[in-house]
Write a structure and sequence with these properties.
This protein has helices at 2-15, 41-46, 61-65; strands at residues 33-38, 52-59, 72-80, 85-95, 98-102, 109-116, 119-123, 128-129, 139-140, 149-153. The protein is of the alpha+beta class and 161 residues long.
């Protein structure tokens, strides 16, 4: 009986999501990184209320160095169905096992957690405004099907712009 319980516990532990992964392995103070997801047409057909067709989150050490006082500066890029790609910087702070990120000028917020050694999950937060502190309306409304995004590590060249 004890052996069966041990096997069952071992199985449960391996089945748990990788939330214990360290976010610092993905975004470090001395290394650039690029994460991206381009949704397939098949995925978008199955999720008709999802507006995001591509999303990218990157970190370049030089960006953080150019903004004194910021723990980490990320670049968020989102392309909505049939629209241009919008870009905005996000100021992020590590809080336990996640990054908590905010967009300047009350542009919204989101969290980033590690999923695996090569993937991250953007989750939580609010609508994201890509307005560069002006009055133009470029907004990612995070409901109903744009609340969480699983992104995978990509070559840095994918995130250069």
């Amino acid at each position: 009986m004890f052996r069966i319980v041990n096997l069952a516990c071992g199985f449960l532990l391996t089945a748990l999501p990788a939330t214990a992964q360290s976010i610092s392995q993905h975004f470090g103070a001395k290394a650039d990184s690029c994460y991206q997801r381009i949704y397939t047409a098949d995925h978008l057909i199955k999720h008709p209320t999802q507006k995001v067709e591509a999303i990218q989150l990157s970190h370049f050490v030089q960006d953080s160095a150019q903004m004194p006082g910021a723990e980490m500066v990320m670049r968020l890029a989102v392309r909505l169905r049939g629209q241009y790609t919008w870009h905005t910087p996000a100021l992020c702070t590590q809080r336990e096992a996640k990054l908590s990120c905010g967009i300047e000028c009350d542009g919204g917020r989101f969290d980033v957690v590690a999923r695996t050694n090569s993937s991250i999950l953007i989750t939580g937060g609010s609508d994201i405004y890509f307005n560069d502190c002006d009055a133009s309306e470029r907004v990612l409304q995070r409901a109903p099907d744009d609340k969480a995004f699983l992104l995978h590590r990509m070559p840095l060249s994918n995130c250069m712009h």
